[in-house]
Protein 1
Amino acid sequence: MRLLYCSRDYTTHDLRFVRAITGAGIELCYLRLESDGLPYVADPLPDGAHWVQWAGGGAPRAAPLAVAEYLPAFASVLAAIRPDVVHAGPVQTFGLMAALTRKVPTVLVSWGSDVLVDAQRDAWYLWASQTALRRCQAFFCDNPAVLEAAQYLAGDVLPPHLCLPWGPHALPGRSNPAARLALRRELGWDDCVVIISTRAWLAGYRVADLVDVFAAAAARRPRLRLALLSGGPETAEVEARIASHGIDRLVYRPGVVTEARVGELLEASDAYLSLVPSDGTSISLLEAMTHGLPAIVARNPGNAEWVSDGTTGYLVDGANEADWADRLISLTDDPSTASRLGEGARSVACHGADWSRNAALLVDLYRRTAAQRPADQQAR
């Protein structure tokens, strides 16, 4: 079977999709909508997957312009590759293009904000969302709140759908104490409390505000340290906040690292922090939880599905810096509670977010969707 994988860019999340698909013996052709210049992932495409050269893949464009400009080229790609099934997302770009061409059975994939936020931007985005949702042959999302919003937009005529968390593998949490200690010593942090953030430095993700929160907590608890992974367009603002607080030596900033290195840094950390206000199911959150890290995150439907306040971490309301800092300090001051929350987090994440199991269900959805194409039109 041949699958055309259509996504906005190339991220760690995409890589996990691609590995699951190629691991099932499916040939994968990767169509990239844009490249914003940010290295979201350090790992190359695996064997069994290859890039598709086409008119897109360059500088970002707003969804209406991208669809208008790239729709003919998208139709040409379908004619040339002749895939059995299309994996298309976000909803208003590749999802809409697949809906308008109507040539190949499509699994429409929501990335969360496309349904929860973008669909309400204006009349065009609403039309694009409804058209894509009503014309796809299957729908996949990672969170019940996203599914509920999609059903509403589709007018309760959503096609066969699957709602599963996607992304993290069920990794063993802190299975190598020696490696954990070695990495902390490498950083000079062997006797510190390490907070980690793995979210991209994007507008709206509040990474600069996270620095403020950490600085406020570290001023009261000098043992606190921050592993601030990734990077992005907010780099200048994030670095300015770090400089303004005088906490450069307290913040480790390795940039975008390999998936293996992310795992090592998670294992060396003590708690996970994210101020992102709106999420579906955050893969970064689930990764941290599988490593036994208590999570301090914003209270929203996506996070509340996984984080139970006082059981697997803490949910924080609003943007008050002091409330966030207080939660960091409470974990710093009470290691036994932090350990208990971390154990609860790992149990919940490993039970409900086993990607090896969930990926098999997604692959089955691809195969069932591809079967809707007439046999004489299937890829050869």
Note: Residues 63-81 form the longest helix (19 residues).
Protein 2
Amino acid sequence: MDGNGSERFDTVIVGAGQAGLSAGYHLKEAGRSFVILDANDRIGGSWRTRYDSLQLFTPSWAVKLPGWRFPKRSALHPSREQMADYLEAYAGRFDLPVRTGVQVERISREGDRYIVSLGGARLEADHVIVASGANRDPRIPVFSRELDPAIVQMHSSDYRNPTQLRDGGVLVVGAGNSGADISLDVAGSHRTWLSGPDRGHVPVSIDTWVARNVVFRIIRFVGVHVLTLRTSIGRRAKVKYASKGDMLVRVKPKQILAAGVERVPKTVGVTDGMPTLEDGRVLDVANVIWCTGFRHDLSWIDLPIFGEDGELMHERGVVTSEPGLYFVGLFFQYSAASCVIPGVPRDAKYVVERLLERERNGVAPETVAA
């Protein structure tokens, strides 16, 4: 604690998910003074609040953060709870200094130090690693406010299971992976429509032995080592993914059809309180689930780190315009796998290496007390 009541650290990490914990592992190995802050009440909270039926696409053998692999090999694909428990156990195994229930409201700079504001408290640091992701604000169309108040509306981040819904039809808006999963989840008890364009799908079942142990290794290699910002095919892929979204991975169109889910065009507005489709149809539904993603919101970082287009300016997670500020877990930070488990550990290691390099070049480190 310094004279103005601030706690002082070499590094503050914002976010205790797989990205923040991976960065914390490397800082711990280097003997740095750091703290990891997370808004959730428990480590792994961002996983625990996902829908009940969620399973990872990554097979259990490939879930590995630095120093320790996912231990439950009997699970072919970890569930949301198993993944959350793994993260919690990981933090405990390496004695990482995580503070939960802490909401970071602002990151700014005073002189040569970063200030991390936590409501009535504040932390000072030479370095800040933002590992919370940019997806803190659910994206819901403005016209949703015009829907009949009797319609149950929720974003996919608030959906858990069908018991939250009213009797009657369900419109799932957004035909990506979450939308496809949730449409199958509710179709057993509700008439269901899935709205949005077909972006394609992985042609093989990811739950077979061959897919888990052969196909996934190929996909992982391509996502981690081929589709990177160093390759022309990788740079093209980044533009494509950003504009068109991902294809379906686990769910196949035939499964959606077999479950009785009706595929419909994009939802574009409201007519007499009911959702209206791009082809002019008006659906009489009792529930709408918005699987429409999240806004890229980093407005809580009060630093000049954004370009004229509003995008974060960085090189592999290193913000060159603000020395000492880093990111881990961004979409296509370096490769197509940067925001998912196979790519996060490499990016975290790279960022911490740059942080330590900066210290060696003149910024005095705070070491952990013996």
Note: The chain has a mean pLDDT of 91.
Protein 3
Amino acid sequence: MNPQFQKWASVLVNYSTAVRPGDKVMITGGIAADPLLRAIYQEVIAAGGLPTLLPTFPEFAGDFLRQANDDQLAFINPIERFGRTEADVFIRVSAETNARVPGDVPASRSAQLRAAQRELGQRMMERAAAGELRWSLTMFPTPATAQDADMASEEMFEVLARMCFLDQADPVAAWTSLHDRQQKLIDWLTPRSEIHISAPDTDLRMNIAGRTWNNSDGKRNFPSGEIFTGPVEDSVEGHIRFTFPVVTGGREISDIRLTFSGGKVVEASAAKNEEALIAALDTDAGSRTLGEIAFGTNYGLDRFTKQILLDEKIGGTCHMAIGAGYPDTGSLNKSAVHWDMIADIRQGGRVTVDGEPFLVDGNFLLWN
């Protein structure tokens, strides 16, 4: 077994999800990640866990969206249900070999599938907030993801290793150190109320009074490096331009611009795949409301890769998610959608909180 994969799996199993003897552990991921999936499986056994492995295959999701009837789209796979509603630990490895859906599949089909799976997503969030489920999502570098990022495969692996602190002798110590630095930001933000984000084509305000900030320190996301909360649902006002494209649901949506009033998206546009954006916003009653506001703190990546798990962590950036909020932040918003969108505010951007500067041109002032 490649020692790099064994180290990666060890951190996921023993730190990120803290598998204990007797834990029911669901492991799922693309077959391209076979060496990492196997290493995770071995680590779970060594920790005394009870593993269930569900491999996934390239192109199958696109086949399903193209061919399934309405009843099939509404069907919930019992193994998927087990992973989110019964397992003690859920580990997912993203390993895309082609992240795009077939071009003849309407965006409304993806929205229909998301709506059918809303119950599972909501239950997973609730169980995690109650401490009943420990979960982690990581990403395996494939030639496809490397090409999307304009990198060679080896370079992509090095970026991931750096962001995950796997290039360090003691990754857990590095994550603990980042946790402490992020906590400094959270302690400063917690008693404050209004966030104001200003940047080119952006002037947005929201209230975060009484909400809980989450210190994302390599557990639920791996890599991680962000702090996030759920804004007061009806408080978001103004407009924002998301300068990084979003690749989600098999489609790349670029140059997204949203206008909020009373907490709801009232205007929306995109330069590419606007119909997919509108379909997502129209999914259900909660999909036009922000469920998350977050700031990336991981300076191990300085460029856009088209991988949301990585890009939303870029140090000094800001991202937001329409749709479902995490209950442990105090968010009340429920939706089948949770779409992260990234605003690169590292040049000419400024975040103030109750009028005091917090993040300027990608630099957290508390860290200076």
Note: The first strand starts at residue 24 and ends at 30.
Protein 4
Amino acid sequence: MILIASPSSATRRRWQQALAGSFPTHEAAGRDWLEKALAQFKPEILLLDLDPGRFGGLRQIQALLRLSPLTRIVLLRNMPSKSEGVAAIKAGAKGYCGKNSVSPALLRKAVERVRNGEIWVGRELGSALLEELVLSKLREEHLANRKNDVAATDDLLSSLSPRERQIAEMVGWGERNKEISNRLNITEKTVKAHLTMIFRKLGLSDRLQLALYMNRFNPFGHNNETTRGISSARTEQTPRAAAQ
């Protein structure tokens, strides 16, 4: 059964006539009717008129799906847009198109496609919407991959001692061995020994690789815990420097 929801009696009649003889239909003119019909009939398809928005718009897609999880929602809008179409599909809708551009034959075709498990969008938005959905998916995958990379990096960094972590961070900031030794009040020889151990633990071969590695892990600035350690080291150096 196809549930037709629109505040406009003319729109409901036009859609009902387009589907007559092909699909049984039921109509809903308001939000209360829509919710009762979804809960009672569990329709295969819901054709939802987004204009003038009396049914809550995109915000209500998930709420409607909770009333009838297996219902496939097709949204129709007077002035469809790519951004709204992407948001609709991501929210759970199975179709989105311009209300005024849908002929009876096209509406029947849309219902058939969605019943068969496809996502259907109007011709005017098809290529642009597909491109945006693909880009959105790629962005999500990129963020997920980056999150995994950071987690793997953090696991390796946890193998460093607190002092090794400090030195690795400072190399990431671009500081040289002499600057590091002065800040931490240790010899350059000790800095080099720490770096050798850091390279071994992280599987790196030189200072440049370490700098790039640390900036991939923390590209926006100093790690708070490490910064507190460095600040403390600077404070301890001040009396010694004055005494010298």
Note: Residues 2-135 form a domain with the Rossmann fold fold (CATH 3.40.50.2300).
